[in-house]
Amino acid sequence: MKDRIGIFFGGVSDEYEISLMSAGTVLRAIDRNQHEVVMIGITREGAFVHFTGDVSEIEQDTWQTHGEEIRVSDLGEMIDFGFPVIHGRYGEDGSIQGLLQILQIPYAGCGIMSSALNLDKVASKQVFEAAGLPVCGYEVTDRREIAEDTDGVVRRCERLGGYPLFVKPANTGSSIGISRVEGPEELPEALERAAVIDRRVIIEQGIHCRELEVGVIGNEEPRVSGAGEITSGNVFYDYEAKYTDGVGTNIYIPAPLTDEELAEVRELGRSAYIAADCQGFARVDMMKDLDTGKVYVNEINTIPGFTKYSMFPLLWKEAGVSLPQQIERIIALGYACRKKK
């Protein structure tokens, strides 16, 4: 008898559109000979909808015309396993994971604590530092301080050693709300822009670097893919560069690294995954300083993208693991650590 896999998509998040793209890829790749697929969409307003139409309607964001709104309590009777493909808030922050845990439905990916930790750029850096892992310099502020003492925040940022700086909302993904700041006169506007999106704001030291990523799959004994590298035609790897064509973004898989450099990057990715108590799967993003050669942990994405531009599935494909095989491994790992009671 096939198990019923609930694929969750959409959501109350700035990354709603990305979720639709990722979900389309997963839905086309999952083995329907092994699983009965139940598509659960979450509208921008937070309504849960059992969608029964074609996958293309999800990708085109016309899916709500072929769905019936359901109660959250109905999920326990509809699915045996949850596979969230929801990026950003309410998807990667522990919210949907907590809901599934309350309903005693096993699910794919990281648990509540790890999901919340890794979406928070401040808390995750503090954990990486506590584990002895290298992170770039940063300062933290909040909406109140930005409103009341912007000049003081600008002065504190001088301790980071110069420009450029990157100003980011503490809790978001896909480069939403991020600004590259070239001088102190640009900082107040960037701080205000980030504070609209989140209460806390992180300001990171700009590093002349290579952007490297690895995919990790596993629970207690995680496996690490080879490394990929991204270069962007934009001033940094922003939302447009990540999800649209024609902006000069290049992905190199495998990344041009020596064996020694690759071993360092893979081990750092594995160490970050373990330090953040990840389970199932994640993508670890790192930076290699072009001036010093030092490698820094940047962040972990606990529900990495599955779009045609996304690094995680491409890295594992390069390692000889097809997307359907990746999905099967992720489901098996979710069952292994969260047996339904």
Automatic annotation (TrEMBL):
Cross-referenced Pfam families: Dala_Dala_lig_C, Dala_Dala_lig_N
Cofactors: Mn(2+); Mg(2+)
Catalytic activity, reaction form: 2 D-alanine + ATP = D-alanyl-D-alanine + ADP + phosphate + H(+)
Pathway: Cell wall biogenesis; peptidoglycan biosynthesis
GO process annotations (BP): cell wall organization; peptidoglycan biosynthetic process; regulation of cell shape
Binding site for Mg(2+) 2: 299, 301
UniProt entry keywords in alphabetical sequence: ATP-binding, Cell shape, Cell wall biogenesis/degradation, Cytoplasm, Ligase, Magnesium, Manganese, Metal-binding, Nucleotide-binding, Peptidoglycan synthesis
Keyword Ligase: yes
Location in or out of the cell: Cytoplasm
Domain ATP-grasp: start-end pairs: 125-332
Residues that coordinate or bind Mg(2+) 1: 285, 299
EC number of the protein: 6.3.2.4
Enzyme class of the recorded protein, top EC level: ligase
Record's cofactor remark: Binds 2 magnesium or manganese ions per subunit.
InterPro entries, per the entry: ATP-grasp (IPR011761), ATP_grasp_subdomain_1 (IPR013815), D-Ala_lig_Van_CS (IPR000291), D_ala_D_ala (IPR005905), Dala_Dala_lig_C (IPR011095), Dala_Dala_lig_N (IPR011127), PreATP-grasp_dom_sf (IPR016185)
Any one GO cellular component localisation term in the record: cytosol
Annotated positions binding ATP: 121, 166-168, 174-175, 204-211, 298-299
GO terms assigned for molecular function: ATP binding; D-alanine-D-alanine ligase activity; metal ion binding
Biological function: Cell wall formation.
Family: Belongs to the D-alanine--D-alanine ligase family.
PANTHER family from the UniProt entry: D-ALANINE--D-ALANINE LIGASE (PTHR23132), D-ALANINE--D-ALANINE LIGASE A (PTHR23132:SF25)
Name of this protein: D-alanine--D-alanine ligase
Organism name: Eubacterium pyruvativorans
Gene: ddl
